[in-house]
Amino acid sequence: MDANMPARLALEGITKAFPGVLANDNVSFSVQPGKIHALLGENGAGKSTLVKMIYGIMSQDAGTIRWNGEAVRIDNPKQARRLGIGMVFQHFSLFEALSVLENIALGMDAKIPSRELEKRIRAVLETYGLKLDPHRIVSTLSVGERQRIEIVRALLLSPKLLIMDEPTSVLTPQEVDQLFGTLRQLASEGCSILYISHKLDEIKALCDSATILRGGKVVATCDPAEETSRSMAEKMIGTSLADVEKNASRQFGEPKLVVSRLSTKSEDEFGVAVADVSFSVRAGEIFGIAGVAGNGQNALLDALSGEVRGADSEAITLDGHPLGLLGTTQRRKLGLCAVPEERNGHAAVSEFTLSDNSVLTARDRKGLVGSGLINSGAARNYTGEVIAEFAVKALGPEALAGSLSGGNLQKYIMGREILQSPTVLVVSQPTWGVDAGAATAIRQALVNLAAAGSAIVVISQDLDELLTLSDRLAVINDGHLSQPLDVDGISIEEIGLLMGGVHGTSQETRIVAGDDVAVSA
Amino acid sequence: MSMDLLIAICMTVIGAATPILLAATGELVVERSGVLNLGVEGMMLIGAVTGFIVMFTTGNPWLAVFVAAIAGLLSSLIFAVLTLSLSANQTATGLALTIFGTGFSALAGQNYSAQPVELFRSIFPPELVGHQVLRLVFGHSPLVYFSLLMVVACWWFLNRSRAGMILRAVGENDHSAHSLGYSVIGVRYAAVAFGGAMAGIAGAAFPLLLTPQWAERMTAGGGWIAVALVVFASWRPFRLLAGAYLFGLVMTMELYSKAGGGPLSAIPAELWAAMPYLATILVLVLISMRRSGSTSAPACLGKPFIPSS
């Protein structure tokens, strides 16, 4: 770096404490003009707290923020924007019932007549080759389009520093490509980018430098180009990372779950139904279902779990028992357990204790209910077992589900189902938003469950994960399931093309299979 | 049906609709900001009794309306402090405000019952006001024109002004609005205060427009109809206007039916009286059956806002 040129942003000794936790402990690093700087860390490492202070949503207890060399106080987001700091949030702060134009206008501090604003939006869209209709109502847009609104909103202010908080967690590979193109173009124009993520392959592909946080402290600053994903992941979690271990000579048994010609009706006009899906999963086998979000994964999970009952009892069979007309409780009794994608409010009730959450799905298989009464001792014991076995960080079985971090709650949910030793387990996005260490633990548990003779269906958007876990793999596209392929000898390009189906022409694939595919979260 | 009777019915309908239209316009803005204030009936009664007392003592209807607005606003601030600053449950607080307003107005109006006041009449020249046909345009109290103006103003504010857009944003997604740097609580205070002032004026419209005296509980559920009307109109000002006049028509039918004679008395007055409520239930069912999304309630309606960071 040019020693005479002050850093665009420099943090010196930033400390922030919450009751009971030190979220940031003496954090220092700097971002140079025109560079893309990664902020890496597991969930709960303090990344979000740190950027909230940079963007003025929170204020630090101690430490200095320097902007172009000068110490500044950033009391609120408005001030941050005035300095030239833009931010694209992980969870979009959008207003569903309002139009794109209105949403952008709300994010602007200056009052700009809507016609003038529209002209400027169109100019930005053109400069960066983004597609977006300013007059659409947000509730009708895809996730990628919604993110574009946030990006355009930030770009309209010609920021000098753009903060991106886990921007790709919800995007399709094509959308990620476009995003990276936009970010590189921005950086080449002199804008600094602070890129927060735990997807290491992306950081290697995009970022010039990286600061790694663990437990609120900076543990390393490195050049991602000189690191492997694995070495960065190990710095992130502080220990060496275990690979998912599979028995190479594993054998598959009889088909356990057989799905034949399963179709569903879509719930509403925006929903995607499953059409004529057939596959079977053998004992000991992990069957992966890949696909871009919104192609019928949720409908398929609901149909398999029994949340939405079908019309044909033979469409789903387990060990030859027809399940098609049964509800979740009966299916669980017969040995089919399921984990939906959404943790809070679907897989677990945030306001309930972990113990009560165990009763909700494990009551029959684990005998947590007797003659209509909850056997709370048994529920506590079972929950304690899950907590111990899956290293869930929680105060105990009586902790509220909502008090757990996302990764820990996911470990609990997966553990709750896995320890019921189901004959068939169907999971959706088992490691979504979970950090690298926990993700490996969850994946290993799935592999072990399969090794013990269960048949497992994994629905995921993370191709690396599916390639690591699955024995066979199929792609769901607009409710249709492709022919299953053996994972051995499959190429990412092949799957990418199947996934791309409706998206058409793009031949590019962003993911490069390498020696470290197992560690990306 | 003669021309005269038709015009007379129209005049009654407009009169009957005006108080609920005023109150509903206020409540619509409140609900668009994400707050459910069920205290409309109570605030109206407080407005009615203050409006009456000021009219009785000063004889100045403009002053009466103004003071009623202030009284309604102040009573709404009780609600605002409890629900917005102290995050109390909005439904329970709203109901409590209605009970409080009912009791307070009865107490304040104790010595005024059965005392007559002047009505707040049209300010146009008598030849226009008395004209057989033109009175349909010029014969109304200023409150009627005010209520129509407020509907248009409210539409313009919500859909065309920046402040209105912020208010809708707050009602749609309070946490996002907060993270963008808007004062959710501040916007909601302003909205609740506006709703309170409108409810106060609506209350004053009862003695000044309909029955020129004070009677306990004289708003007779008008506040509740206003709350229902907002849902009926699916939170849109011009539908509110249509809904209020429809409800006004039904209420007028009740009066004519009570008066006896004609085809209207074939249906009992009680059924006419129940009609607005039946219509509301019907509309609610229809809205929830359609479920198209974008036309429905503000997403944060009735949820207390507690900033997370």
Topology (elements, then pairings):
The complex is a heterodimer of chains A (521) and B (309).
Chain A: E1 9-18, E2 21-31, E3 36-41, H1 47-54, E4 62-67, E5 70-72, H2 77-83, E6 85-88, H3 100-106, H4 114-127, H5 143-155, E7 161-165, H6 173-188, E8 192-197, H7 200-206, E9 209-214, E10 217-222, H8 229-237, E11 255-262, E12 277-282, E13 286-290, H9 297-305, E14 316-318, E15 321-322, H10 328-334, E16 336-339, H11 354-362, E17 369-370, E18 373-374, H12 376-389, H13 406-418, E19 424-428, H14 436-451, E20 455-459, H15 463-469, E21 472-477, E22 480-481, E23 485-486, H16 492-500
Parallel strand pairs in A: 3-8, 3-9, 6-7, 7-8, 13-20, 13-21, 16-19, 19-20
Antiparallel strand pairs in A: 1-2, 1-4, 4-5, 9-10, 11-12, 11-14, 14-15, 17-18, 21-22, 21-23
Chain B: H1 3-32, H2 40-58, H3 61-85, H4 90-108, H5 126-129, H6 135-138, H7 142-160, H8 162-172, H9 174-179, H10 184-210, H11 222-232, H12 237-259, H13 269-290
Helix pairs in contact in B: 1-7, 1-10, 1-11, 1-12, 2-3, 2-4, 2-10, 2-11, 3-4, 3-10, 7-8, 7-12, 11-12, 11-13, 12-13
Can you walk me through this structure?
The complex is a heterodimer of chains A (521) and B (309). By secondary structure, chain A is α/β, with parallel strands linked by helices. Chain A has two domains: 9-237, Rossmann fold (3-Layer(aba) Sandwich); 255-349 and 417-519, Rossmann fold, CATH 3.40.50.300. Chain A contains 16 helices and 23 strands. In chain A, the strands form five sheets. In chain A, strands 13, 16, 19, 20, 21, 22 and 23 form a seven-stranded mixed sheet that branches. Chain A has a six-stranded mixed sheet with strand order 6-7-8-3-9-10, with helices on both faces. In chain A, a hairpin with a 2-residue loop joins strand 17 (369-370) and strand 18. Chain B has a single domain, classed as ABC transporter involved in vitamin B12 uptake, BtuC, CATH 1.10.3470. In chain B, 46% of the residues are buried. The chains are: A alpha/beta (521), B mainly alpha (309). At the A-B interface, helix 3 of A face helix 8 and helix 9 of B.
